[in-house]
Each structure stands twice: as C-alpha cells, then as structure tokens.
Design brief:
Number of domains: 2
Helix content: 25-40%
Strand content: 15-25%
Number of strands: 9
CATH superfamily of the largest domain: Bira Bifunctional Protein, Domain 2
Bound molecules: 3,4-dihydroxyphenylalanine
CATH architecture of the largest domain: 2-Layer Sandwich
Radius of gyration: 43 Å
CATH class of the largest domain: Alpha Beta
Structural class: alpha+beta
Order of helices and strands: HHHHHEEHEHEEHEEEHEHH
Shape: rod-shaped
Strand order of the largest sheet: 1-4-5-9-8-7-6
Largest sheet: 7 strands, mixed
Oligomer: single chain
CATH topology of the largest domain: BirA Bifunctional Protein, domain 2
C-alpha cells in the first residue's frame, strides 16, 4: 500500500511537470484528488485495512494530497503568469511610432465665400442677421412691393407649402424682416446670407441655392446715395472676386428698388475681351441692386420722407463658381470629398 501511494505520488508529480496548459491541470486534479480520484479511492478503501495501519496510510495519503495540491496550485499560478505575460507582450504599444494623422474636414466653398463677405461687411460696420427659410408670402413678396398677381413673381417659380407659406425664393425677405423688427426705426446696416429655393435645375441653376443680401437705411439728411451703393459694391466685388475687376451699372427693374441696377463685372476669364463665358460681351452679371423703393420703406414702418437707403443682392453659388473656377453648380451640392478636398487651405493649419 505504501508503495502504491508513493507510486501515485511520483506519477502525479511527473504528470504535473509535463503539463502544458491550465485545462489539463484541472484534469489531473480530478484524476487524483476528485471524488473518483486515485488517492481518494485509497482513502475510501481504508476500512479494509488493519486498524494499526490506518493512521499510517491515512497520513501518507494526506501528505501525498498536500504535496499534489501545492504543486497544482504552483503550476496554476505559473500558467496564469505565463498567460499574462503573453497578453502584455501582445498588447505592447510602440510609443515611438508616428501617430496616424487625424482626418480634418474643410470649410465648404460656399461657406468660405459667405464668411469672407460677412467679415468684409462687418469691417464696414454692418450687422450680420438671419431670416427663416420657411417664409410667408407676406415677407417674401408683399412687403417687398410684389403684391399677389404681380408679374415679378413669375420669375421666381416657388415651392409653396401652403397658400401662405413657401420656401423663400430670395433673401430680400430679410430686408422686410429687419425693418419690421427695428421697432425704434433706427438706421440699418445689415448683411444676411442663406439658402433660397426656386423650381429650377440645370448646370447653372439648382432648386436650392444661396444668396447674400445687404440693406442700408439712414435718415435723409445723411444723403445715402447711388454713389454710396456704387462705392460699397466696388469694394465688395474687388475684395471678394478679383482686385482688378471693373463694375458696370446697368439700369434694370426690381419691384423693391427704384431706381434699380444690375451690376456687371469684367469677365475674369477673358479680362473683358469677349469669350464664350461672357457671351462675347466682356461683362458678367453678378448683382442686383438699387435705392430702396419708398413703398417698401413705408410698408415696413420707415417714413420715406425721413429715410432712404440702398439694397443689393446676389447669388453666392455664382460668386463661388467665379472665384474657384467651378464649372457645374451641382458640384457644390454633391458632397463629393474629391471635390471638397480641393478647398483645404494649407495656410489655415
Ligand atoms: N432678390 C433679387 C433676386 O433674387 C436680387 C436683388 C435685386 C436683391 C435687387 C436686392 C436688390 O436687394 O436691391 O433676383
């Protein structure tokens, strides 16, 4: 019996030494120390032994069990440590590697133009204001001297939501909103930019586009005149589109200004010689403008006998196309990163 115990002990020690993983360690524990384990079986068989042998054998078995348990525990710790080491090794971070570059977006060309225009006008003392895109017929048309049935509405084929609400067709609506909101009827110098909507779609028109609008109103004794309008637009065009451009004021008609002008600039493609872009005229139309119509002043709470002013408006999409040489307006709205990446400005980094 004693030999058998010794044999089991040696065998198990040998097996434990040769183990390769935690799982087989558990197998060994069951094999020797489990309910049906080899050492357990000897303890069970004790009753068949002579009384004086029992304590001796019992001691031997217990000693073998202790040795085994200790070995198993040691081995278990060894395996766990090994596993941890492996994990640490695998998760090691090389802090000397250069980091991967964060991808940065860029400012959309339209927003770039809007920001530049706003900066310019703020530097001349203008406020930047905002108006709603879902607008009422009243503010989009009526208060701008375009009553229901007026032919000027035909040029702005519109998205009506109800009889009264539509997507604004022009940022001129913000002119009326600013005048009405100015309850103390103080002078106004404002610029506003934003989305406008009309039912049209081709290479140079989109159902959604952007406009910028300016309005200046002051007391009559300040003598706001066409000369002020002209000087302002000259600064605007030369700073935003091109320093060497000339302006040409062409009499035109807008219901909310009187007199009204369309403003052309030298064709930046041919420098004024005439080409396909300017249809051989040497000029490209960029702005609508004029002196604020007395009806518009009156309808929005400014007495035309006491106040006068000028207004102007233009499409930002076209300005952006001129400025960056974009050939199809739809690129501006396609959200294609190959297009947008080209407007990353390195000097901003
Ligand atoms: N709202 C006009 C349009 O969309 C542009 C315009 C013309 C705005 C003359 C003005 C202006 O402020 O005075 O065609």
């Amino acid at each position: 019996m004693k030999e058998k115990i010794e044999q089991i002990k040696q065998k198990s020690i040998e097996e434990i030494k040769n183990l390769v993983d935690l799982k087989s360690l558990e197998d060994i524990r069951i094999k020797y120390l489990g309910k049906k384990g080899e050492l357990t079986a000897i303890l069970r068989g004790m009753k068949e032994l002579a009384a004086e042998e029992r304590p001796i054998i019992g001691n031997l078995v217990n000693e073998a069990k202790e040795t085994l348990e200790k070995l198993i525990q040691e081995k278990e710790e060894e395996f766990k440590q090994e596993e941890l080491n492996k994990k640490i090794e695998a998760e090691k971070i090389d802090i000397t590697l250069p980091s991967s570059k964060l991808k940065r977006g860029s400012i959309h060309p339209l927003n770039r133009v809007i920001e530049d225009i706003e900066d310019l006008f703020v530097s001349m003392g203008y406020d930047v204001v905002e108006g709603p895109e879902l607008e009422t017929d009243e503010f989009c048309f009526e208060r701008l001297n375009i009553p229901k049935g007026h032919p000027a509405r035909d040029m702005q084929d519109s998205f009506y939501i109800t009889d009264e609400y539509l997507l604004r067709t022009q940022t001129s609506s913000v002119q009326a909103r600013t005048m009405v909101a100015n309850t103390e009827k103080r002078p106004i110098r404002m610029i506003t930019a934003g989305k406008t909507y009309r039912r049209e779609d081709d290479a140079t028109h989109s159902h959604q586009f952007n406009q910028i609008e300016g309005l200046v109103i002051d007391k009559r004794e300040r003598n706001i005149s066409l000369a002020d309008l002209k000087g302002t637009l000259e600064i605007f065009v030369r700073k935003i589109i091109g320093a060497n451009l000339d302006l040409r004021f062409r009499p035109s008609y807008f219901p909310f200004t009187e007199p009204s002008y369309e403003v052309d600039v030298t064709c930046f493609k041919c420098g004024g010689k005439g080409c396909n872009l300017c249809k051989q005229t040497g000029w490209i139309e960029v702005l609508g403008s004029g002196m604020v119509h007395p009806n518009v002043l009156k309808m929005n709470g400014y007495d035309p006998d006491q106040y006068s002013g000028f207004a102007f408006g233009t499409g930002i999409d076209r300005l952006a196309m001129f400025r960056y040489g974009i050939t199809d307006m739809r690129y501006l709205y396609a959200n294609d990163v190959r297009f947008l990446n080209q407007f990353d400005r390195k000097d901003e980094e």
